[in-house]
Amino acid sequence: MGLQENYLEYRNHINTDHGYIKYILKIQQIMHQRQLVSCMSDSKWLKLLHAMTDLDFPPAFIVKLVTENRDLQAEDQFVKKIPWYLGDWHPFYHDAMPVFIAIEYLIVKPMLSKQRGRLIDDLILDQTDQFRTLLQRLNIVFDEKNSCFKIYAYHSN
Fold this sequence. Notes:
two-stranded antiparallel ribbon; four-stranded antiparallel sheet; DUF6678; 5 helices; alpha+beta; about 35% helix
C-alpha cells in the first residue's frame, strides 16, 4: 500500500472513532499544561512508518505517551541491551503503535541480536547509519546516544 492510501486509511479510522475528539482534547490540555510543542504530524508519522520498509529489519522501539509517567528503568534496560525482537511499525488500527497524537517520543535501537547457537556469539546486525540517514531525510527531530535514537513527537520549550 502506498503512502497516500495509508494516509486515507489512517484518516478514515480516526474520523470513525467517536472517542477520538475527547482524546485529542485531553492531549491538547496536557500539551498546554506541560508547554509541549509538536514536532511530528500524522503525515510525518506515516512517512516514517512507510520508510521502515527501506531498512533490512524494522528496529525495536519503546514508546513514551504524553499521558504516561516516564519509566526510567524500562528506558535504561532498553538502551543497554541489543534487542532480539523486531519493532512493529504499523498504525494503531493494526494493533501496533498508539494513536500518533498520544506519542511523546520513541526510543529506537536499530540493532538486532540473532542467536546462532549456544557456543557461538550472537550475530549483531547494526543499521544505525541507515536509520540516522532515514531520519535526516524525513527531517525528523531526534537525539542520538549510544546507538539509540530518541524521536520527538513533542518537545518542551
